[in-house]
Amino acid sequence: MATTTLARALTDGLRAAMERDPKVLVMGEDVGRLGGVFRITDGLQKDFGEQRVLDTPLSESGIIGAAVGLAVRGFRPVCEIQFDGFVFPGYDQIVSQLAKLRYRTQGAVPVPVVVRIPFGGGIGAVEHHSESPESLFAHVAGLKVVACSNPADAHWMIQQAIVSDDPVIFFEPKRRYWEKGEVDVGATTLESAFPLHASRVVRPGSTLTVATYGPMVKTCLDAATAAVEDGHDLEVIDLRSLSPLDLGPVAASVRRTGRLVVVAEAPAESSVTAEVAARVQQECFFSLEAPVLRVTGFDTPYPPSRLEDAYLPDLDRVLDAVDRALAW
Amino acid sequence: MEQPQAWVPTDPRARPSRDQVVKGLKGVDEGGPELVQLLTPEGERVPDERFDRHVADVTVEELKALYRDLVLVRRADREGNALQRQGELGIWVPLLGQEAAQVGSGRALRPTDMAFPSYREHGVAWCRGIDPTELLGIFRGTDHGGWDFVGRRFHPYTIVIGNQCLNAAGYAMGQRFESRVGDPDTGEATICYFGDGATSQGDVHEGFVWAAAYDAPLVFFCQNNQWAISVPLDRQTRVPLYQRARGYGFPGVRVDGNDVLACLAVTRWALEECRTGNGPVLVEAFTYRMDSHTTSDDATRYRLADEVELWKLKDPIERVRVHLSRRHGVEPDFFEGVDAEADELGERLRAFCRAMPQPDPERMFSEVYAAASPQVDAQRAEYLAYHASFVDEEG
């Protein structure tokens, strides 16, 4: 066991993946000499060289489009998009090529590309630096979408995403980069690590189920701790994989608790939280004691950062939803 | 005080000259003084100091083979058009008029080179050893491409305009990273096809930037057929397209896209530049889309018949036929033989197309992901059971 930050766990995971497979490339804006604006790729270019850690032109469509071509050639590119709001110039390549090449060629041309995206708010940034666009990717067939929430998951999930033969959009909770946690780099191996596309109960409980992912996992765990004072024992589930969703553990939990609150920073409309709500009510209709409630960002553009504390779901808004669900 | 003169772009060759306006011609049929041409529309071989050496080894037999390619590719294209008109295909994307650009460049490739087409490159596909029957699925709606993409080194057709230029840049970067560049004999290169309309897309610009930044062995092969559906070239550019390359720091050449020999020579040169590490290169094949954009389009709504008539005089096949018979004494029986072969190809294509089976509904769910997806798997099971319930009722 080693205690490390989420950021450092990602760096170590990337390093392990690059050591394991010489076809793994890291590419993006400022990822080489600088080590990335969040320093996630710190030291990699020094150790692996400029042909494996590429400081690319400032061109997001180029990053994805070239990564697709490199993957066709047999490489496993890991792209870094500098901030969530900058992915859209590359969205066309992601949707039109990355997501569909396998299907178009019926498996003959796999494109094992990972696109890392630091996402979410809470860092006081200017516009386009705090968004949560994961639902825009979860909606696209052919992509897999995951979000890590803690250092141990960050370490193993990035490696699992890289060995995946499917394209993976990998969301990193940027405001949790500096949170510390334990990572088992001794006994755990890539093969024995918790599966990439599985959700996990991170806090067992009996009163009500909270399903969440990414930066909101910590918020929900804090809310669960606070709820104990009110006599509520919340079960918190980290969804981890947003496409495909692994709702088995959520459904099993809801069958016990009868109540579900889904929490995410992203806006509510047509979102991952909407998908969870729709599917759980379909799956657990007769077990539900209350409607599935959601705590999300608002259906507005991300506000100026002085307002982000109001925009982002926090402990109190989660507890408020818990109270409403329990009072139903 | 003297008024500054309004800036006027220098000869863009994308606007009609005064004379052309007087003649009633909207479009352009002259490639300008820098156009590389080895065979005139009248079938005369004209010398070219720079590019002759790249086709010095082309024998009469090889010229005849190129002629055969051109005729068969055109026949396959016309059959595709006819099959759409008969309701056998949902759509066809004609290449009529662009046979020389595609065969000349396609025959310059080696098996180890990689090609990224757009969606009109049936002639390049032919040169990669892909049977025209393998193209039909896309247009009949039975698949999204049915050839051996990896083995033939011919990427799937890319329909979103310009996307493939970045994919090709990445692939060519890979060739360089794998040290397959440097030796003219064993070196590899990539070629990327796109049209004049695509040059307005960001991905094509970014492709130029990336290929230049990484010295990628990539030939950008732009078939300037003068029209992006209904929009003429002067809405895409102020300067001749080949001159854009200079701004990115690599050479650009304009070749007569209706001259198969010149296209072969220029593409061989461009590929050699790339193989030896001097890539990328832009080739603009100056040609003309003789038919509509697709079978769903009606070109008579936006361009004059006179323009098409003018380009008919520059036909890519006729000039080779004239050259072969006048300069090399090739007898009529050769041409008759090729025509007979084209008839056979047409018949084979028609028969194949009509016999193409309806894809199984299971195909819809296949290869969305490499690993299992519970969501897609559940939908497959549910739909197939639903589908089977109707089959039972009918059966």
UniProtKB/TrEMBL annotation, chain A:
Keywords, sorted A to Z: Oxidoreductase, Pyruvate, Thiamine pyrophosphate
Q: What is the lineage of its organism?
A: Bacteria, Bacillati, Actinomycetota, Actinomycetes, Pseudonocardiales
Parts of the chain that traverse the membrane: none
> What name appears for this protein in its UniProt entry?
Pyruvate dehydrogenase E1 component beta subunit
Pfam families named among the record's database cross-references: Transket_pyr, Transketolase_C
UniProt-recorded Gene Ontology molecular function terms: magnesium ion binding; oxidoreductase activity
Q: What positions does the domain Transketolase-like pyrimidine-binding occupy?
A: 4-179
Q: Which domain of life is it from?
A: Bacteria
Looking up InterPro entries in the UniProt record yields: THDP-binding, Transketo_C/PFOR_II, Transketolase-like_Pyr-bd, Transketolase_C
Species the sequence originates in: Pseudonocardia ammonioxydans
Known cofactor(s): thiamine diphosphate
UniProtKB/TrEMBL annotation, chain B:
A GO molecular function assigned to this protein is:
branched-chain 2-oxo acid dehydrogenase activity
InterPro entries this protein is in? Alpha-ketoacid_DH_E1_comp, DH_E1, THDP-binding
Could you tell me the keywords of this UniProt record? Oxidoreductase, Pyruvate, Thiamine pyrophosphate
What this chain does, per the record?
The branched-chain alpha-keto dehydrogenase complex catalyzes the overall conversion of alpha-keto acids to acyl-CoA and CO(2). It contains multiple copies of three enzymatic components: branched-chain alpha-keto acid decarboxylase (E1), lipoamide acyltransferase (E2) and lipoamide dehydrogenase (E3).
Q: Which PANTHER family match?
A: 2-OXOISOVALERATE DEHYDROGENASE SUBUNIT ALPHA, MITOCHONDRIAL
Family per record: Belongs to the BCKDHA family.
Q: What is this protein called?
A: 2-oxoisovalerate dehydrogenase subunit alpha
